[in-house]
Design brief:
The structure holds two protein chains of two kinds.
Chain A: H1 4-22, H2 24-28, H3 33-52, H4 58-85
Chain B: H1 3-24, H2 32-56, H3 64-114, E1 118-122, E2 128-131, H4 133-139, H5 143-146, E3 158-159, H6 172-179, E4 183-192, E5 197-209, E6 215-224, H7 226-248, E7 253-257, E8 263-266, H8 268-274, H9 278-281, H10 286-289, H11 294-307, E9 310-318, E10 324-336, E11 339-348, H12 350-396, H13 401-427, E12 436-438, H14 440-451, E13 459-464, E14 471-474, H15 476-494, E15 498-509, H16 511-515, E16 523-532, H17 539-544, H18 560-570, E17 574-579, E18 585-594, E19 600-601
Parallel strand pairs in B: 12-19, 13-15
Antiparallel strand pairs in B: 1-2, 1-6, 3-4, 4-5, 5-6, 7-8, 7-11, 9-10, 10-11, 12-14, 14-18, 15-16, 16-18, 17-18
Helix pairs in contact in B: 1-2, 2-3, 12-13, 13-18, 14-15, 15-18
Classes of the chains: A mainly alpha, B alpha+beta.
Chain lengths: 91, 603
């Protein structure tokens, strides 16, 4: 069963996705942008899956949803590492 | 523990690591708001993953009521993070642009200040908004005095190149604003109030436009060309002087190209000498024109290469009409418009050589005259003694037949010898001289009838003997001898048939004509010209015609023309012979005229 807040999350993240796409060139200038945007794309995939699990394949899609969240967190950590702990100052 | 809970633990662990890394590198140069947004995002993720671990680990559902709210905040924070980052980048870009603009302006200002030309920047209202030090120095004004001044300010007084006032609408800045075009290389005079003088400047003005196509500013640059103009004027004067010297030179001057040997420029005297026009000469080489042979050209080049200049190299040049002139060459290398050239000055020796030859001939005649005069005088004295004694002998023995016959024959021979010595003395200017004032035309008119029968009947004599000519002081006997000798010579040259023309008259000898006749001084003379259309003479015969005993005839004694020369010289006159083979002969005699006639014979 699809929950209301999951739909809102999906809509919000879709809005962000649209924002990123229309500002694609500018977003590319964010340091280590590929990892950061990849983290968001994976998170967005998690939001899609959490909505789909309400319709079919709950068990599998739920596991995949949490894998997406984990991947997003790991990518975020790698980005933070690159930004804050990497020897070369990305600024 | 379920698989999902395990995955969430990994997520939780990753977020914790991210938070630690963030805290560790907090001092990194990143905007604080972005750092806080990352912290917030990681914090929300931490909460979400703890809640998930507790929920899927079947430990607690205490955090569930907050989870939905937190999950809604996560995409919002993602949005804020990316938006803020982009915003920071935009601000950074703007700052960079601003800094670049400032640097550019500083650089431009530095260029304007340090450029080696006076620069004044006007606004669209002609107000001065920038001026460099050179412009201040050139105009003798301070920056404060210049900044803010408009073109209409009475401070400015501009003049045209010719010194007339420049109207306001023709001021460079006004012209550029009106036409919106670049103004290039305009020469103006600018009055300097502080120095109370006018400086000549070369002005360029360039408009700058804004995005709407309106003029935002006008950059005016100008350079002081007063010194340059002075230098150019000096150069022009120098060139004009050279041009005058070149074209008005009394000597032929030629400029040739070193590389090609072609004539670059020639003056009028050279055209006069060579008989070619300037157009025929320019662009051709002297060897092409046949002035001199290849061997002489090599001699010239060798001399030039060895000593750097040619000083008085003599060789013959052949001119357009085929005649050969003897010339002295002077040459030195010069530079004309970065081209190596040779400046050749030519001295035509032909006339000088001719005059020298005539002068030598005169000197030779003088020497012979002195010698023959001395001999004739002694010989005449001896003849007088012999003649006297023969006379005495004839008086003492009047009836002695043989003595009378031999005596008379001897006397006849003595008479012939006496005539001969008289001619020699006439040539040597040692004869008797009884000068009287004579009208030459009348004298000729009276004496010619006695002379004409002695020449051939087929020879016609034309005369032009005006009565109103000046008189001369002359010994009529000697004058008769002169006329008789010249006419006899002319008739012999005609070989029995032809025409002789006799002209007398007053003649003024000017400097130019006198210069062409050695010994002749300018002034008024009574001239006698006797022309024949006979066979003429070659140069050799002409040069020896006045020598005693020189004759081309089998029976002649060669004393007639020698006597003419001596008699005319004795009368302070001049005699010249012009003749070319096949073109007849002209004998010109100039005798000094008498201003007042005391006694005019035949007058």
């Amino acid at each position: 069963m699809i929950q209301q807040n999951e739909i809102i999350m999906l809509l919000l993240s879709m809005g962000l996705m649209f924002f990123i796409l229309i500002n694609k060139q500018k977003v590319k200038r964010i340091p280590v942008a590929k990892i950061l945007t990849a983290g968001f794309y994976v998170l967005f995939a998690g939001y899609v899956l959490t909505n789909l699990e309400g319709l079919f394949g709950y068990d599998l899609l739920n596991v995949l949803e949490h894998i997406c969240y984990a991947a997003s967190s790991i990518l975020m950590t790698v980005w933070c590492w690159k930004i804050f702990a990497y020897k070369k100052d990305t600024k | 523990m379920s698989l999902v809970a395990t995955i969430d633990i990994i997520s939780l662990f990753a977020v914790i690591v991210a938070l630690i890394v963030l805290m560790h590198g907090w001092n990194r140069t990143l905007p604080k708001n972005i750092k806080l947004l990352i912290v917030g995002l990681l914090g929300l993720s931490l909460f979400q993953h703890i809640s998930n671990v507790l929920e899927w680990g079947i430990l607690s559902k205490a955090l569930d009521p907050f989870e939905d709210f937190v999950e809604l905040l996560i995409p919002i924070l993602w949005f804020l993070l990316i938006y803020s980052y982009l915003n920071e980048l935009t601000i950074g870009d703007l700052r960079k642009s601003e800094m670049a603009l400032q640097e550019s302006e500083e650089r431009l200002r530095s260029i304007i200040q340090n450029v080696q030309a006076a620069v004044v920047v006007h606004g669209p209202d002609t107000k001065i908004i920038e001026c460099n030090k050179l412009s201040q120095e050139l105009l003798g004004l301070t920056e404060d005095q210049m900044l803010g001044k408009k073109a209409i300010d009475p401070l400015w007084k501009l003049f045209n190149e010719d010194g007339s006032d420049l109207p306001l609408e023709r001021y460079p800045v006004n012209q550029v604003i009106t036409t919106k075009n670049v103004l290039k290389d305009v020469i103006l005079g600018i009055y300097r109030p502080n120095k109370n003088d006018v400086v000549n400047v070369l002005v360029n003005a360039v408009p700058e436009f804004d995005h709407d196509g309106n003029i935002s500013q006008v950059i005016v640059t100008f350079m002081d060309i007063t010194e340059r103009e002075r230098a150019e004027e000096t150069l022009r004067e120098s060139e004009a002087k050279f041009r005058d010297l070149f074209s008005l030179s009394p000597l032929p001057v030629v400029v040739t190209d070193v590389k090609t040997g072609r004539l670059i420029d020639v003056n009028a005297k050279f055209c006069e000498l060579s008989k070619y026009t300037k157009e025929e000469l320019l662009g051709r080489t002297p060897t092409e024109l046949g002035f001199y042979s290849e061997s002489e050209r090599k001699r010239f080049i060798t001399e030039l290469n060895l000593s750097g200049t040619v000083k008085g190299l003599e060789f013959d040049i052949k001119i357009k009409d085929g005649s050969v002139h003897s010339a002295l060459f002077f040459a030195r290398p010069i530079q004309i418009e970065n081209k190596r050239c040779i400046l050749n000055t030519i001295y035509d020796l032909t006339e000088r050589k001719r005059l020298e030859a005539q002068s030598q001939q005169i000197q030779r005649l003088e020497s012979i005259a002195t010698l023959s005069g001395g001999i004739a005088h002694e010989f005449n004295n001896a003849l007088a003694v012999v003649s006297g004694h023969i006379d005495l002998l004839l008086m003492d023995l009047p009836d002695h037949g043989d003595v009378r016959i031999f005596g008379q024959q001897t006397m006849e021979s003595i008479q012939r010898l006496s005539n001969l010595t008289n001619q020699l003395l006439a040539y040597a200017r040692g004869g008797k001289y009884q000068a009287k004032s004579v009208n030459l035309s009348d004298f000729l008119r009276n004496t010619l009838p006695n002379i004409i029968p002695q020449i051939g009947f087929d020879i016609s004599i034309d005369t032009d003997l005006p009565r109103d000519i000046s008189s001369i002081n002359a010994d009529t006997t000697q004058l008769l001898m002169v006329i008789s000798a010249v006419i006899t010579n002319a008739s012999e040259a005609l070989e029995g048939e032809g025409r002789i023309r006799i002209i007398s008259g007053d003649e003024e000898i000017d400097d130019e004509y006198a210069a062409s006749r050695p010994g002749l001084t300018p002034g008024w003379y009574v001239g006698l010209t006797i022309k024949d259309d006979g066979e003429g003479m070659d140069e050799e015969t002409k040069s020896r015609i006045f020598e005693p005993f020189f004759t081309t005839k089998f029976q002649g004694r060669g004393l007639g023309m020698a006597a003419v020369y001596g008699i005319i010289k004795n009368h302070d006159g001049y005699v010249y012979v012009d003749s070319e083979p096949g073109e007849g002969t002209v004998v010109r005699i100039f005798l000094p005229r008498v201003e007042t006639n005391i006694e005019v014979l035949y007058g």
